[in-house]
Amino acid sequence: MHGNSRTDIGGALGVTRQAVQQRFHAPHKRCSPETMTDELREAMVHVTQAAVHHRNNYIGTEHLLRGLTTED
Q: For 14-66, how does the pLDDT look when each residue is reduced to its tens digit (9 = 90+)?
């Protein structure tokens, strides 16, 4: 926002402060492999395998569930 408040930006755009906050919120931080536990890393392998197996180009809830419940 470079020193401008959400209220100021909203006023310039003709929208509310809440609208600015919703539209320009900070992106979520991604979990990097360095910060993952071994268990989480292993689960993510299963999650990815489930998505590939079903020929999906995304990871959805169904893949997460499968990856987190798969046991070796």
A: 888 888 887 777 666 666 767 788 888 888 888 999 999 989 888 899 988 88
In the chain, what are the helix, strand and coil shares in percent, each to the nearest 5? 60, 0, 40
Q: Cα(15)–Cα(37) distance, rounded to whole angstroms?
A: 43
Could you give the angle at the alpha carbon of 44 between the alpha carbons of 22 and 71, nearest 5°?
135
Q: CA angle at residue 25 from 22 to 29, to 5 degrees?
A: 135
pLDDT at residue 27 in the model: 65
Question: Which residue is associated with the tokens 């536990």?
Answer: 37
Inter-CA distances, 29 with 26, 35, 58, Å: 9, 12, 18
Residue with tokens 């360095």, as numbered in its chain: 34
